[in-house]
Each structure stands twice: as structure tokens, then as C-alpha cells.
Design brief:
CATH architecture of the largest domain: Orthogonal Bundle
Strand content: 15-25%
Number of strands: 10
Structural class: alpha+beta
Shape: elongated
Number of helices: 8
Number of domains: 2
Bound molecules: zinc ion
Helix content: 25-40%
Distance between the termini: 22 Å
CATH topology of the largest domain: Helicase, Ruva Protein, domain 3
Order of helices and strands: HHEHEEEEEEEHHHHHEE
Strand order of the largest sheet: 1-6-7-5
């Protein structure tokens, strides 16, 4: 009996914006938002992951965007008053500049004569929070975030420390936001394939050389995707729909297909409820990995 390769939840996750896409949106907004003044705000009135605080939101009228930043998959739109708009794209959210109105536009920041800033989100798992200056450090979504994978903070030493003494399978460890932020299922699968590490390997069994290779693979896979996203920036600035970019994937979603590096066939297993794709020849389990669930 053929196994089901991708479960329905994984289809949503596969569409979910991952770190490279959030970074792309961030770069697009950095290019254009600073200096723009909010002239009015309209909302759909529908609840997102958190209800939209209309009172706080309306206080932003006449405020001016001064800076855009990203941390993990959160976007920070800093305003001149010291207030910050904290935005998460959830599973299907998008933040872009466009004049036309569309279904699932939930928050629209009108910017005078400029194209409005639109938060669109069909599945409504996204979030638009208004944070006062002193609330950023205590916001429950932001405390305990792990290191950024594309900064020097993710390095061999850090990952060795996190892997030390734990039987957690390496795939689950690198997907843990408290360890490293922004590595979703797609990039965890792809990084482990590139590093030739079996996803179920207990973290403590990785040797220093493997940890070095894995650290490099994570950075490599993510930065390639960010670069790819760079070509779609204009979509977010009003010249398109801010569509998702297609990524070239080696193992994710390729169950049953030939491995691009050897004569093996990509297989799929479940780990922590998520589809896990790997090449059993390139990513041989080490002696204890098979004991892990
Ligand atoms: Zn292979």
C-alpha cells in the first residue's frame, strides 16, 4: 500500500512563509516604508490570531514609519512615536503595497497619495499587534527566541552546546525556535540533506565535524532562499501580488523520487507530526539513531 507522502497540515505548512520570505518582505518594506505617514486605517473587523486592537491602531493615524526590522519571523514596523507594529504572517499572510482592494485584506494603512500598506491573510493565523515601546521586551511572542541562523550567533560552538547531552532528534532541535529561529520544516529537511545527516540522529551523537557541516548547511540553504526572494521584492512594492517564490528543493516533497546526489530514493517519515524527507543512502543513521522516535 503506498504511503501518503504529504499530510494536509504539511500542505499548509509548505505554503507558510518561512524565514526567507519574511526577510524578503522585510527588505521590501525597508526600501519603501520609512518616512511614510499613516493618514487613515481601515480593517475588515475579522479576528486574526489575536484580535485587532482598533483603539490602539487608530492612535497610529498621523504617525510616521521610521524603521523596519525582522526578528525570527516577526516584522517590526517602528513608528516615530515609539510605538511598534508587530506583524506575523502566520500561515498565509502577506504584507505588501497595493492600491486595489482584495478579499482577505484585513488591515489597510493608507499612506496619503502613496500605495497603501496592506495586510492580507486568507487563513487568518497572522497577527498585527500594536506595541508600546516598553512592551517589546515583555511581549510573550518575543521572549525566549533563539539565535538568528544567518548571523554569527549561530555557530559551531553554539550548536555544540545545544546538542550536548540531549537525545532530541537533530531535526526537532534545529526546528526549535528557542534554539534557532525561523527554520521551518522545509529548510530543516533541506539543511539535513545537504549536511548528510539523518534527521532522527540524537543531537548528542553528532560529532564536532558534523555540527560544523550542519551549521554551514543551514546558513547556505537559507541564504540561497533569501537571495532567490530578492528577485521578487518588486512584487511587494506594488508591481505584483507579492507572490510566494518557488524554491528549488532537494528532498522536501520529493518522496519516491530519485536523489540528486546518489542512486537512492527519497523517503518520507513522520517526526513530531511533520513530514520528514531524506535520502536513506546519503543520510545514513548512525548506530543509535534508529532507536529514536
Ligand atoms: Zn542520496
Amino acid at each position: 500500500m503506498p504511503c501518503i507522502d504529504v499530510h494536509i497540515t504539511d500542505i499548509y505548512y509548505a505554503l507558510m512563509p518561512e524565514l526567507p520570505e519574511v526577510e524578503t518582505v522585510c527588505l521590501a518594506m525597508k526600501k519603501t516604508l520609512p518616512g511614510k505617514r499613516i493618514t487613515s486605517i481601515s480593517t475588515s473587523g475579522k479576528r486574526l490570531r489575536e484580535p485587532i486592537d482598533e483603539i490602539r491602531l487608530n492612535k497610529l493615524i498621523n504617525d510616521k514609519f521610521i524603521e523596519v526590522k525582522r526578528r525570527a519571523k516577526y516584522l517590526f514596523l517602528h513608528l516615530a512615536s515609539g510605538t511598534t507594529l508587530l506583524i506575523h504572517l502566520g500561515m498565509s499572510g502577506n504584507l505588501l503595497l497595493r492600491k486595489s482592494r482584495e478579499k482577505h485584506d484585513h488591515v489597510i494603512f493608507h499612506l496619503g497619495q502613496e500605495r497603501p500598506l496592506v495586510f492580507n491573510d486568507p487563513r487568518r493565523f497572522g497577527m498585527v499587534l500594536v506595541l508600546e515601546k516598553n512592551e517589546i521586551h515583555t511581549c510573550s511572542y518575543l521572549v525566549n527566541l533563539g539565535v538568528e541562523p544567518l548571523t554569527p550567533k549561530l555557530n559551531k560552538r553554539y550548536l555544540m552546546k545545544k546538542c550536548h547531552g540531549t537525545n532530541t532528534p537533530i531535526k526537532n532541535l534545529i526546528m526549535n525556535n528557542k534554539v534557532i529561529v525561523g527554520i521551518g520544516n522545509i529548510y530543516a529537511n533541506e539543511s539535513l540533506f545537504q549536511a548528510k545527516i539523518h534527521p532522527k540522529t540524537p543531537a548528542r551523537h553528532l560529532n564536532p565535524a558534523e555540527i560544523t557541516i550542519l551549521t554551514r548547511a543551514i546558513k547556505n540553504v537559507l541564504s540561497k532562499a533569501v537571495k532567490k526572494g530578492g528577485t521578487t521584492i518588486n512584487d511587494y512594492l506594488g508591481s505584483g501580488e507579492g507572490g510566494r517564490f518557488q524554491q528549488k528543493l532537494s528532498v522536501y516533497g520529493r518522496n519516491g523520487q530519485a536523489c540528486g546526489k546518489c542512486s537512492g530514493t527519497i523517503v518520507n517519515t513522520r517526526m513530531a507530526g511533520r513530514s520528514t524527507f531524506y535520502c536513506p543512502l546519503c543520510q545514513r543513521p548512525n548506530k543509535s539513531a534508529s532507536a529514536e522516535k
